[in-house]
């Protein structure tokens, strides 16, 4: 019986195993394939993320730039090696870039929830800097240089940038987006050149918390608090810290910039009024708390912008103009991509006997402070005004040409001029620093103007593929006169006398771009 029982149990186990194998071999009904569905709620290019009610759109561009006569791929040649006009000045700077953006939207009972992310991956031909000993060192553009010429923070010799990363919900915008102060065309009323003065920019976005109210018929009002640190600090310059214009002496962050913007956007065009309040928060007069500090001073900026569409000269022709005035908020005029943010040093030729070359100087911080006669001055705010504009004409669906221009004026008050220039031709940080080695400034006035004019032609042979040539002329109208000592080993400039003189520069941007 025991053996019979074992045989019966063994047979049962075998039958179960065979049955399991046969069951595994039987065809099973496959799950229905969930195809990606088009989402027509938010325009072309959106698709539903499978299994959700969220729509997503991928976009971007691939761009190749060549900038002629500049060491920068965006700001022109008004400082550093670009402004040297010698063998350290690049004949060209080349950049290749891929942009990727991800746009998601979900309909909710509170309205659409939107997220937007935009990143760039760039590879830029770089430049060389002198070491003052007959040798040069490689100076990567857009990357932090580490010892032995390694690129810390770079990706295989290139750079990664996060332009936009924000959430929009129930009228709020939270994250990194273009400043509400900026006109819709930001830095580009009719150009691709990044370095125009005359208005707000932050084309790469700024951290902000914004509420926008829509009143209908294209009328909206935005109230915003935005980070000032990355793009809106032009300098709170401490004259006591040394240097011709002092040294920027910021304290820690204390208050964001406050922005209000009213916009009317209709079929005829657009009108916008913007206002920004900017807190200038400096550290100490000296190295410690015992030296005291200047009080905070709030600066401000106001801007008006106007766009007129479909003017009689042709279908799609446009005029974009804007004007701005600032006091202690310089970057809302001389935006972060314009000429090293308002620190211009351009060299040129001279006919003055005894002078080696000429130099034009223009510096525009938010404020300067120091001491006069042993008495601390507090912050002295710098005033600027400016405008920019363009006219764009479409010759046909494939060709268009624009003419554009920009202007900015920078003015220091009397106390600031005394800090920089002294009294009666004696003292002052500019005179003391730049008169070294026998220089003689005969007119000391830190005010200056910048004028720019340019033209751009674009050819779009097929949809989303555009070739551009953009020529820009810049004139630096500085108010100094006489001679100074302006050496710079990094760009090969010797310790010699330079005539203080207005300067002119020209750059040409050639671009190919494929949007997708």
Automatic annotation (TrEMBL):
GO terms for cellular component: cell outer membrane; pore complex. GO terms for biological process: monoatomic ion transport. Keywords: Cell outer membrane, Ion transport, Membrane, Porin, Signal, Transmembrane, Transmembrane beta strand, Transport. One of its GO terms (molecular function) is porin activity. It is a multi-pass membrane protein. The keyword DNA damage does not apply. It is found in: Cell outer membrane. InterPro entries: Porin_alphabac. Its main location: membrane. The keyword ATP-binding does not apply. Pfam families: Porin_2. Residues 1-23 form the signal peptide. Consists of 16-stranded beta-barrel sheets, with large surface-exposed loops, that form a transmembrane pore at the center of each barrel. The pore is partially ocluded by a peptide loop that folds into the pore lumen. Belongs to the alphaproteobacteria porin family. Forms passive diffusion pores that allow small molecular weight hydrophilic materials across the outer membrane. This is Porin.
């Amino acid at each position: 019986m025991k053996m019979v029982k074992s045989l019966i149990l063994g047979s049962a186990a075998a039958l179960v195993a065979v049955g399991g194998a046969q069951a595994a071999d039987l065809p099973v009904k496959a799950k229905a394939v969930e195809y990606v569905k088009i989402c027509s709620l938010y325009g072309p290019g959106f698709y539903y993320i499978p299994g959700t009610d969220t729509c997503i759109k991928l976009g971007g561009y691939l761009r190749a730039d060549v900038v002629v006569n500049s060491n920068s791929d965006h700001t022109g040649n008004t400082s550093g090696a670009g402004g040297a006009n010698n063998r350290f000045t690049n004949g060209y700077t080349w950049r290749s870039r891929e942009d990727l953006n991800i746009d998601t939207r979900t309909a909710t009972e509170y309205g659409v929830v939107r997220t937007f992310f935009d990143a760039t991956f760039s590879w830029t031909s770089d430049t060389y800097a002198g070491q003052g000993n007959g040798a040069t060192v490689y100076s990567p553009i857009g990357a932090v240089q580490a010892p032995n010429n390694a690129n810390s923070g770079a990706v295989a010799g290139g750079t990664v940038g996060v332009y936009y990363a924000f959430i929009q919900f129930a009228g709020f915008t939270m994250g990194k987006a273009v400043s509400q102060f900026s006109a819709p065309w930001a830095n580009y009323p009719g150009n691709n050149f990044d370095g125009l003065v005359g208005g707000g920019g932050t084309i790469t976005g700024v951290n902000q918390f914004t509420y926008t109210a829509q009143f209908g018929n294209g009328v909206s009002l935005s109230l915003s608090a935005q980070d000032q640190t990355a793009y809106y600090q032009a300098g709170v310059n401490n004259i006591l810290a040394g240097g011709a214009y002092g040294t920027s002496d910021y304290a820690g962050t204390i208050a964001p910039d406050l922005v209000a913007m009213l916009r009317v956007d209709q079929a005829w065009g657009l009108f916008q009024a913007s206002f920004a309040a900017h807190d200038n928060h400096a550290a100490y007069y000296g190295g410690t708390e015992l030296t005291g500090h200047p009080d905070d001073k709030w600066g401000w900026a106001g801007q008006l912008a106007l766009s007129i569409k479909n003017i009689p000269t042709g279908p799609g022709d446009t005029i974009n103009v804007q004007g701005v005035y600032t006091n202690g908020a310089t970057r809302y005029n001389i935006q972060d991509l314009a000429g090293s943010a308002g620190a211009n040093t351009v060299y040129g030729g001279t006919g003055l006997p005894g002078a080696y070359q000429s130099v034009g100087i223009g510096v525009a911080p938010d404020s300067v402070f120091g001491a006069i006669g042993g008495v601390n001055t507090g912050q002295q705010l710098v005033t600027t005004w400016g405008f920019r504009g363009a006219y764009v004409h479409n010759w046909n669906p494939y060709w268009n040409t624009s003419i554009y221009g920009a202007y900015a004026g920078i003015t220091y008050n009397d106390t600031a001029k005394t800090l920089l220039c002294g009294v009666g031709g004696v003292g002052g940080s500019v005179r003391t620093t730049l008169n070294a080695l026998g220089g003689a400034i005969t007119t000391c006035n830190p005010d200056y103007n910048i004028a720019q004019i340019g033209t751009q032609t674009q050819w779009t042979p097929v949809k989303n593929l555009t070739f551009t040539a953009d020529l820009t002329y810049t004139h630096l109208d500085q108010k100094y006169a006489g001679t100074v000592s302006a050496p710079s080993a990094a760009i090969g400039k010797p310790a010699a006398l330079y005539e203080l003189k207005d300067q002119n520069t020209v750059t040409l941007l050639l671009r190919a771009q494929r949007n997708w």
